[in-house]
Automatic annotation (TrEMBL):
The chain crosses the membrane at residues 6-32, 52-76, 96-120, 140-163, 178-196, 239-264. This is CAAX amino terminal protease self-immunity. GO terms for molecular function: endopeptidase activity. InterPro entries: Rce1/LyrA-like_dom. GO terms for biological process: CAAX-box protein maturation; proteolysis.
Length: 308
């Protein structure tokens, strides 16, 4: 059974790489012979309103997430849901799961509170933050998944030979590869975590840095009124906000072995998606697909080993 599983997983991975090569080849072919920039051949930038939120709003949300995480973890400890353990001991399964649940709860609260705060400034904040729904964004997200995830997995596999990969979610699943544990971890890591991270890093951080970067590039000292609706014809110009956001995003995963390296590369792609569209859905789909695939593949592997 393990051999059959390895064959199926290998076929899926190969199909993913073939799809990535075909899609990237199409992009490169469309670029040569045209007069448009390479970034525009990948994905044309969409005009929109200049971001009204600032770096302060990101710092507010990030600080709130730290406070809420500590508060919820403290409540869980007081209820006995999180057990204390020595540094050289393995983390108990109950503690791992409870910690992840606490992080998910704090993340959802951060998104909700921050959206409420920004809506006090601008009633249309939810739309301007990129939460407006477009069915085409789902298609774009899945297409981008085929282009970004295979290279990310290839880099991850390469660097894992140098530095072993560690992640509490995978450790939880390895300790108890049950459907119940898998369902809890899947909701937390493949749905909630991507939503929180894309909102914090792609929207709040990159969006605010983009507004700042373009103001500097244009030598524009005009102060934008956060409560007034600006022109809907703004398009981003600078690219360094993507790089800065990706560096910080990767460093936030420090302690998971060499994971920051492939995550930095992935974040560049996610940042590009958000820069060109101004909406969260495309990058969120890619993030969800990657986390969901990684977790599902690991669960299937452990389940096959247990059944053998």
């Amino acid at each position: 059974m393990e051999t059959q599983f390895a064959a199926v997983l290998g076929a899926v991975v190969i199909a993913g790489f073939v799809a990535a090569i075909v899609l990237w080849t199409g992009v490169i072919r469309s670029y040569f012979g045209s007069e448009i920039a390479f970034s525009e051949s990948i994905l044309p930038v969409e005009p929109r309103q200049v971001p009204f939120w600032r770096v302060f709003d990101f710092l507010f949300a990030f600080g709130l997430s730290l406070v809420l995480t500590i508060l919820i973890q403290g409540i869980f400890i007081s209820q006995g849901w999180i057990e204390r353990f020595e540094p050289d001991e393995s983390i108990p399964l109950q503690t791992l799961v409870a910690s992840l649940v606490g992080q998910s709860l704090s993340g959802l609260l951060v998104v909700g509170v921050t959206l409420a705060w920004l809506r006090l400034i601008r009633p249309d904040a939810v739309k301007q933050l990129g939460f407006d729904w477009k069915a085409s964004d789902m298609q774009l997200g899945f297409r981008a998944s085929a282009m970004l995830i295979p290279p990310t997995l290839l880099i991850s596999s390469a660097v894992s030979y140098l530095v072993p990969y560690h992640h509490p979610v995978m450790e939880s699943l390895e300790k108890s590869p049950s459907i119940g544990i898998f369902a809890i971890l899947f909701v937390g890591t493949a749905i909630i975590a991507p939503l929180v991270e894309e909102f914090l890093f792609r929207v709040l951080m990159q969006g605010s840095l983009q507004q700042l970067a373009d103001s500097i590039a244009n030598n524009d000292d005009t102060v934008i009124d956060r409560e007034e609706t600006p022109s809907p014809h703004w398009t981003p110009r600078s690219y360094w906000p993507i790089v800065v956001t990706s560096v910080i995003f990767a460093l936030m995963h420090f302690g998971q072995g060499a994971a920051p390296i492939p995550l930095f590369v992935l974040s560049l792609g996610l940042g590009f998606l958000y820069r060109q569209t101004g909406r969260i859905t495309p990058s969120l789909v890619v993030h969800c697909v990657l986390n969901g695939f990684s977790l599902s593949a690991e669960f299937a592997r452990l389940w096959v080993e247990k059944a053998s």
